[in-house]
Design goal:
Order of helices and strands: HEEHEHHEHEHEEH
CATH superfamily: Glutaredoxin
CATH architecture: 3-Layer(aba) Sandwich
Number of helices: 7
Low-confidence stretches: 1-21
Number of domains: 1
Largest sheet: 7 strands, mixed
Number of strands: 7
Shape: globular
CATH class: Alpha Beta
Radius of gyration: 15 Å
Mean pLDDT: 88
CATH topology: Glutaredoxin
Helix content: 40-55%
Strand order of the largest sheet: 2-1-5-4-3-6-7
Length: 175
């Protein structure tokens, strides 16, 4: 049964990634505020966007699902560069539709507990325009300015440039 569910999930992801209808909030749009459950490492927490924005810009990256190849690689790269993001004054937050328990394990195993992961419900994936219409969400990275406005969007399905382009933006933002 588990093998069948894995096959169905893999097929759904493949269909979602084939779609090129990915849309994202535009630069200058107001980011929807949210309060959700999340985890950093094994510690569960409440994550509130407006509270994070009080400390500076927030890098909010949506990824399709924990423990998939691209999601692992992207999250590893964010973790490897967390000191650079912090040096630029930014807070990093990862989100997917996975359960908080799954994200707690993912944060610990794949990100060394270096930043929080939070569980996005339908209102969040719809609000940030990352709903793929299936059971995942589009891979989209936002930089949200302290004002709550979207300052930067990178919405390529390929994870490989999300961290590099986002880091360059937040470093330039600090200057």
């Amino acid at each position: 049964m588990r093998l069948i569910l894995t096959a169905i999930a893999t097929l759904a992801l493949a269909i979602a990634l084939i779609s090129t209808a990915s849309a994202a909030l535009a630069v200058g749009a107001q980011a929807p505020d949210f309060t959700v459950r999340g985890a950093q490492g094994g510690t569960f927490m409440t994550v509130e966007l407006s509270a994070l924005l009080k400390n500076g810009p927030v890098v909010l990256f949506f990824f399709p699902s924990s423990f998939l190849g691209g999601s692992r690689a992207e999250s590893h790269e964010f973790a490897d560069n967390i000191d650079k993001f912090r040096g630029a004054g930014a807070t990093v937050l990862g989100m997917s539709r996975d359960t908080v328990d799954t994200l707690a394990r993912f944060s610990t195993e794949e990100c060394a507990g270096k930043f929080p992961m939070a569980s996005a419900d339908e209102s969040i994936v719809d609000g940030f325009d990352v709903n793929d219409g299936a059971m995942f969400n589009y891979r989209t990275t936002y930089v949200i300015a302290p004002s709550g406005k979207i300052a930067f969007v990178y919405d390529e399905d390929d994870y490989s440039n999300h961290v590099k382009k986002t880091l360059a933006f937040v470093q330039a933002m600090k200057k």
